[in-house]
Write a structure and sequence with these properties.
Keywords: Cell cycle, Cell division
Strand order of the largest sheet: 2-3-1-4-5-6
Radius of gyration: 16 Å
Protein name: Cell division protein ZipA
Pfam families: AAA_33 (PF13671)
CATH superfamily: P-loop containing nucleotide triphosphate hydrolases
Strand content: 15-25%
CATH topology: Rossmann fold
Number of helices: 6
Structural class: alpha/beta
InterPro entries: P-loop_NTPase
GO biological process, one term: cell division
């Protein structure tokens, strides 16, 4: 039996550090990193100007991305997806990608509180001024309404991270 790659994906509120953690994990796991923001910007340049635009184009990307990721996993290469897994429906999509081809998966739950996320968003606006118009407290509040914390009943392997240490690293919580 050939060895499949592992699919790594993330959940956490806006500003929790999912993109930062995905880059770090891709290096650690020698994995292919796929970033939704990059794909959307390439395929739909200057067409995403609202949250509804994002939802529309993200939905168009998913069928193509699913097959692409399954092909990468099936040759034994790990994949880190910097795509949101912030609702049960989104996480089921990731789980289907892996389970349909019998690949392993791991969900990283960056469980930071609102104050931590808003502080990180403020820092990101400074470091990435091009994101300042989207990375606002108002957007955070709007998007956070849709966030659903993952539950064991979803059948997903969850590794939870909570809090940030003095070096800016997230602290893992041992699974129960």
């Amino acid at each position: 039996m050939k060895k499949m790659g592992t699919l790594y994906f993330f959940t956490g509120k806006m500003g929790a550090g999912k993109s930062t953690k995905s880059k770090q994990l891709a290096r650690e796991k020698h994995a292919v990193l796929l970033t939704e923001d990059e794909w959307l910007a390439s395929l739909y340049p200057n067409q995403i100007t609202s949250f509804n635009d994002y939802l529309k184009f993200s939905a168009q990307l998913k069928p193509m991305m699913k097959k692409h990721v399954q092909n990468i996993l099936s040759v034994g290469t790990n994949v880190v997806m910097d795509f949101p897994g912030n609702t049960q429906k989104q996480r089921k999509w990731f789980l289907d990608i892996a389970s349909e081809i019998n690949a392993n998966h791991q969900l990283f739950f960056l469980n930071l509180n609102n104050d931590q996320c808003l502080r990180q968003l403020a820092q990101r606006r400074i470091e990435q001024p091009e994101r300042a118009t989207f990375d606002t407290e108002e957007t955070y509040i709007h998007v956070s309404k849709y966030f659903e914390a993952p539950e064991a009943s979803e059948g997903i392997n969850i590794l939870e991270f909570s809090g940030i240490d003095s070096q800016g690293n997230q602290n893992a919580i041992a699974p129960e």
